[in-house]
Amino acid sequence: MKPLFDKIWDSDFVWSWRHSPVAITATLILSALLVCSVGATWIAPYDPFDLGTLNLLDALKPPIWSPDGTADYLLGTDGQGRDILSALMYGMRSSLLIGAGAVIGAMALGISLGLIAGYAGGAVDSTIMRIADVQLSFPAILIALLIDGIARAVFPGNLHEIIAFPVLICAIALAGWPQYARTVRGSTMVEKNREYVQAARIIGISTPVIMFRHVLPNVLGPVLVLATVHLATAIITEATLSFLGVGVPATTPSLGTLIRIGNDFLFSGEWWITIFPGAALVLLVLSVNLLGDWLRDALNPRLN
């Protein structure tokens, strides 16, 4: 028998990845960004949000290749003397955590409602899908802004920074669940008429067990592709909200906050403060989207 690694390496899924230069490049870029963000505490040259380490005399230093650049700050510093490279690593970690949390929340809600709508049918299906249709008629950013505004009005001001992360995750998740619900509903309506579902009903298996143990594994393929693409959308939504000043607090900035801060210096010549966070956001989203496109093709049996 072949070792497990050889079986995985020779599988159709990995073979497709090995023969796709775009997928390999996107994986390498995304892996490097993940390592830098997750390991920012140990990899970053400085802690950009430790006020005790900041030196205003080092403010607005250009990148190392500029005439006034220094090797201490490879990508320069901002108006407070923070190292841009270190700020990128810490900011990307915040964006990834919020994006991943929002995708998980949207998947949990959307898959559950999609299974219920597709399996139950009738009035339950119509009610859930009409709610999804109404929500899909509004841009996701407006839904997220509405939820964030309600949270800020309900909770006292001294709690805004504490609840900023969970509120932002919930806002983006609630804006994205209809896509999962519609996808799962369509697949569930096909699967519920299969022989294995009818056999499970005959032997007396309960409806929730049939939905989540038997039907769910057979509808997850399209959901995984959708989750990959939604991760990029969630990161962009978080960056947009932070750029508008309603995202994470300034004490824990994300890529959107860094871009907003740098925008104030863009026309005064300190272009690096906003260009590098913007480039990092583009690389992150582009690599995730490219992997999502490859995953869609790899999991589509009509293209194999």
Automatic annotation (TrEMBL):
<keyword id="KW-0813">Transport</keyword>
<dbReference type="InterPro" id="IPR000515">
    <property type="entry name" value="MetI-like"/>
</dbReference>
<feature type="transmembrane region" description="Helical">
    <location>
        <begin position="223"/>
        <end position="251"/>
    </location>
</feature>
<dbReference type="GO" id="GO:0055085">
    <property type="term" value="P:transmembrane transport"/>
</dbReference>
<dbReference type="InterPro" id="IPR035906">
    <property type="entry name" value="MetI-like_sf"/>
</dbReference>
<keyword id="KW-0812">Transmembrane</keyword>
<keyword id="KW-1003">Cell membrane</keyword>
<dbReference type="Pfam" id="PF12911">
    <property type="entry name" value="OppC_N"/>
</dbReference>
<feature type="transmembrane region" description="Helical">
    <location>
        <begin position="271"/>
        <end position="292"/>
    </location>
</feature>
<keyword id="KW-0472">Membrane</keyword>
<feature type="transmembrane region" description="Helical">
    <location>
        <begin position="162"/>
        <end position="179"/>
    </location>
</feature>
<feature type="transmembrane region" description="Helical">
    <location>
        <begin position="136"/>
        <end position="155"/>
    </location>
</feature>
<comment type="similarity">
    <text>Belongs to the binding-protein-dependent transport system permease family.</text>
</comment>
<feature type="transmembrane region" description="Helical">
    <location>
        <begin position="20"/>
        <end position="44"/>
    </location>
</feature>
<protein>
    <submittedName>
        <fullName>Peptide/nickel transport system permease protein</fullName>
    </submittedName>
</protein>
<feature type="transmembrane region" description="Helical">
    <location>
        <begin position="96"/>
        <end position="116"/>
    </location>
</feature>
<keyword id="KW-1133">Transmembrane helix</keyword>
<dbReference type="InterPro" id="IPR025966">
    <property type="entry name" value="OppC_N"/>
</dbReference>
<dbReference type="GO" id="GO:0005886">
    <property type="term" value="C:plasma membrane"/>
</dbReference>
<dbReference type="Pfam" id="PF00528">
    <property type="entry name" value="BPD_transp_1"/>
</dbReference>
<feature type="domain" description="ABC transmembrane type-1">
    <location>
        <begin position="92"/>
        <end position="292"/>
    </location>
</feature>
<dbReference type="InterPro" id="IPR050366">
    <property type="entry name" value="BP-dependent_transpt_permease"/>
</dbReference>
